Amino acid sequence: MAEAKLVEKRCWKALKEVMDPEFPVSVVDMGLIYGIEEQDGVVTVTMTYTAVSCACMEWIEGDIRKRLLQEAGVEEVEINVVWDPPWTVERLSPEAREKMKTWGVSAR
Question: Rounded to whole angstroms, what are the CA distances from 103 to 9, 20, 55, 73, 95?
Fold first, then answer.
């Protein structure tokens, strides 16, 4: 159990390196990642997108898989996309809000 929590913590940190293709903000700071669980080397990422019609879904999921498979103890990555609760700008981290502000994007 403690090992699973350690792997999950490392996975959260690793996903801070996976950028949203539209804005150079991590998928974590965008608030797209709802949860990460690890069991017997299988990491399940529960996530959403900013819109149902997001053109970058496969790209983002591929980047997530590629990055997480680099972590020790991760043998497989499953991605569970959910739409409830829906993504809103309230999910943006303070860092993401600041970055968007510098680009002139409203994040209210």
Answer: 30, 15, 21, 38, 13
**Token digits for 46?**
């529960």
Give the model confidence (pLDDT) of 85-105 as tens digits: 999 999 999 999 888 888 777
Q: Is the pTM of this model over 0.85?
A: yes
**Can you tell me the distance from the alpha carbon of 27 to that of 68, in angstroms, rounded to the nearest whole number?**
13
Torsion of CA 26, 31, 32, 38, to 10 degrees: 90
Number of domains in the chain: 1
Question: By the 8 A CB rule, do 76 and 41 touch?
Answer: yes
Distances (CA, A) of 25 to 31, 78, 107: 10, 22, 13
- Give 38's strand partners: 43
Tell me which residue range forms the domain holding 7. 2-102
Q: What is the pLDDT of residues 29-39, one digit of tens each?
A: 999 999 999 99
